[in-house]
Amino acid sequence: MEFKKSILCIGAGYVGGPTMAVIALKCPEYRIEIVDINAERIRQWNSEDIPIFEPDLYEIIKETRGKNLFFSTEIEKGIKNADIIFVSVNTPTKTFGEGAGMASDLQYWEKTAHEIIANSESDKIIVEKSTLPVRTAEAMERILKANSRGIKFEVISNPEFLAEGSAVKDLLEPDRVLIGAHKTPEGQRAEQELVDLYAHWIPRDKIITTNLWSSELSKLVANAFLAQRISSINAVSALCEKTDADIAEISYAVGSDSRIGPKFLNASVGFGGSCFKKDILNLVYIAKSYGLTEVADYWEIVVKMNEYQKQRFVQQIVKEMFNTVAEKKIALFGFAFKANTGDSRESPAIYVTRKLLEERANVSITDPKALDNARQDLKGIDSRVTYEPDPYKAAEGAYAIAILTEWEQYKTLDFERIFRSMRQPAFIFDGRNILDHKKLYEIGFNVYPIGKTPFTHFD
Ligand code: NAD
Ligand code: UGA
Known about the structure:
- It contains 17 helices and 14 strands.
- Helix content is 43%, strand content 14%.
- By secondary structure, the chain is α/β, with parallel strands linked by helices.
């Protein structure tokens, strides 16, 4: 088939894979190729066992792969043939040198710029899909303009707002698509190309166009606002535990104000995921680099509060279990950073496990999708850890269960059976407030939710 345009996506990760699959589904006249330096990942994308778990994604891949969606390691060839190149490589927090622990590590990003320039033979639109510090496009443009062959590159920003676990739904029905471009004729032409692409399935009034820098910065700010809500409610959860107020009632009462809204007000063991922490720290670093100390301090507290919440959770486990968990089996229900994903990047479960191991507990981890990643995360420190797909077996002989991921299936487990198989007195620490606490108490558990009065059988 003759395709209208050729799109290349560099980076076949959690964003590149699902995003391009949905574009391929909705735009059959575009040829979409996704390339990656990780040959194993590409092999998996070409197999029946795709490398990420995302509801409904495999169905779309099956429908489009080999028709107008292709996965490959041939980066040079891909660049040469593409009209539009999305760059969706990882932009983790820098771990070395200036800005270590805060700034974005742009080495993968910059490498793609050099690859693009080395392999291009025609003009191209370059789309920033990765999350990047504001004004990164300027650096990209400088590198790309340094070619002596007269090839023109137009860099535009199109940040991604999908959340893992609901990526396909978020891509099919986004709240908005954001496109940032220069207000020059070339910039506006590139912007229009991207608007036309998304307009295949997204109503025009949901496609927001801005200047480049607003688009880049909006992405960091959106994540900062979302994380800020979680840290706000988690801060209040600590206060609830001291005052017998109930965090769920407060979330409802506060979130019913239409100016505040009900979403993202679930108190938890803390937020995880590959982006919230890194993007806020990046925002903090950017503010600091412009000398805006107060702005930096304001946002940094969101991350500090999250660290506090994770610490609080483990400290409570140790304290309530008579100040010692040494040699005690503790079952962790869930290791993924949220439900419906196998991703465990920055999962609070990593912190909780490490701390329990420091206290010499024996930790049994169960998760329907994230056990392989858990093994990777705990490599070298997991001699006291067992990985158990079956939650009933994970809880057998345990002194306590800690709920760390809000998997739906945990709500309907037979907790009477679980209680009978555990050591007594049995504890449940519900880091996601998903269980029926009163019922668990009646079964015999000592129950410690987040931000609510505990139900215990002790005097
Ligand atoms: P990821 O680590 O899953 O995927 C990135 C991929 O890029 C990897 O497979 C890596 O091998 C590949 N890569 C790196 N350098 C390359 C190069 N030079 N050539 C070819 N491939 C290369 O990362 P991700 O979660 O998909 O995130 C990508 C970007 O999107 C990040 O900037 C992130 O902040 C942003 N983002 C992520 C999410 C999310 O939910 N994960 C959501 C929105 C935005
Ligand atoms: C988040 C944003 O929601 C996306 O819009 C954004 O594109 C993405 O980051 C990104 O840039 O990577 P994601 O991290 O996949 O998506 O998942 P979220 O649903 O935002 O959850 C993040 C963390 O916050 C999870 O650990 C979740 O359990 C926790 N959370 C969420 C709470 O503790 N309470 C809540 O009320 C909501």
